[in-house]
Amino acid sequence: MDNTILNRFNHYLINQNFMGYDPYDALNSPILKFLTFNNRVIGIFLVQMLNYLPINLRLLLAIKKEYNPKGMGLFLSAYSKKYMITKDESDLKKINFFAEWLMQNASSGYSGLCWGYNFDWPNRAFFAPKGTPTAVNTSYIGFAFLDAYRATGEEEFLKCARSACNFILNDLNSTKYPEGLCFSYTPIDKSCVHNANMLSSAFLAEVGRLTNEISLINEAKLRMDFSVNKQTINGSWFYGEAKNQRWIDSFHTGYNLIALYRFYDVVREERYMNSLKRGYKFYLQNFFLPDGTVKYFYNKIYPLDCHAFAHAIITLKTLSFLNKEVSRDLLKKVLGKTIDLFWSERGYFYYRKNKLFINKIPYMRWVQAWMFLALVELINNED
User: Fold this and answer.
1) Which of 14, 41, 196, 347 has the most CB atoms around it within 10 Å of its CB?
2) HEC string of the chain?
3) Do 33 and 114 belong to one domain?
């Protein structure tokens, strides 16, 4: 891959100090927060309205650029992987910067280190006040600390990851189903969302391998079995098990597949590989157009979302061993399409392309952090 774009992108991120807006930060506006009247449905409407608009009204709404914990975790992963290639002192300094920020800005009052969002988050299942830790954020940030540990050998980073396991095991709810146990999304809900469950399980297993704690792996297996058993006959997963969560999109499918692969890499049991192969086959056959366009849903193309393209790059690179010829050809096409559709000469990536317009807002967590990680993955162990 030509590193020119990566270098320009890196320069942009440094100039922004890794701070930015988020598609879901509407309720950081005191104006919009007041207009919700503490009603979750109104909150969802206002968040989606601001998310959809191609014009950035955040300055008018008194929404400030901020650090986002998940974005900071993705940058920690990216710079850890980058440092393993470059051994550049500036990359090492960024590892320490992100790690220190995450340690200092974890959510308080829980069994271990954990992280939420820097905004109130009303969604279909529950309302999560600012700072409410989530399984997804904590798992990704936990993985980032593992990446930092592998890159530097710093034991403190492994301790941070191990601490996050305590949150997952002790503070998340586990609901028992005939198919197994399922982690909740946050400590305040009992929803069953597969990417939250699978990421948490994979993270526990990876930490368990590094710390020689078979108990962590066993706890992970009880939950991963649930999602494997809930895989549909065509190899896909619904986003969640509630009636209003029965959609299938590309990037959550990618989250699930990589989580399952990371879990398999620990336990090495064939049934998990069989599930992974079925899921990846569905992924390849249903989420891409011949020119490398990444569909948002398996049965619907639009919106074209840079986040989906970024995670497709990561998924295709990570799982290419399952179907090398198709994966590598598709990866080149997806990368080319991503640059054509979303790259700005100002040094960042646009958000979305709808049928009628392009949303060019450079959201930091949703787009920039994921794209930076994707581009770093491409230079990491390039074939």
Assistant:
1) 196
2) CCHHHHHHHHHHHHHCCCCECCCCCHHHCHHHHHHCCCCHHHHHHHHHHHHHCCCCCCCCCCCCCECCHHHHHHHHHHHHHHHHHHCCHHHHHHHHHHHHHHHHCCCCCCCCCCCCCCCCEECCCCEECCCCCCHHHHHHHHHHHHHHHHHHCCHHHHHHHHHHHHHHHHCCCEEEECCEEEECCCCCCCCCEHHHHHHHHHHHHHHHHHHCCHHHHHHHHHHHHHHHHCCCCCCCCCCECCHHHCCCEHHHHHHHHHHHHHHHHHHCCHHHHHHHHHHHHHHHHHCECCCCCECCECCECCCEEHHHHHHHHHHHHHCHHHCHHHHHHHHHHHHHHHHHHHECCCCCECCEECCCCEECCCCHHHHHHHHHHHHHHHHCCCC
3) no
Q: In this structure, what CATH number is given to the domain that contains residue 186? A: 1.50.10.20
In this structure, which long-range contacts are made by residues 293-296, counting pairs with CB atoms below 8 Å and at least 24 apart in sequence? 293/337, 294/250, 294/334, 294/337, 295/250, 296/249, 296/250
Maximum Cα–Cα distance across the chain: 55
**58 and 106 assigned to the same domain:** no
ω into 129 cis (within 30 of 0):
no
Number of residues assigned to the chain: 383
CB 264 within 8 Å of CB 276:
yes
Q: Are 72 and 79 in contact (CB under 8 A)?
A: no
Q: Per residue in 74-111, pLDDT tens?
A: 999 999 999 999 999 999 999 999 999 999 999 999 99
Residue 183 Cα distances to 159, 188, 221, 378, angstroms: 22, 12, 12, 32
Same domain, 157 and 43: no
Residues 146 and 7 in one domain: yes
The percentage of the chain sitting over the pLDDT mark of 90, rounded to a whole number, equals: 97
Please give the structure tokens belonging to residue 207.
């930490």
Amino acid at 270: E
- In which domain, by residue range, is 55 found? 26-65
Q: What is the C-alpha separation between 316 and 382, in angstroms, rounded? A: 13
pLDDT in tens, 228-250: 999 999 999 999 999 999 999 99
Half-sphere exposure of 233 (CA within 13 A, CB side): 0
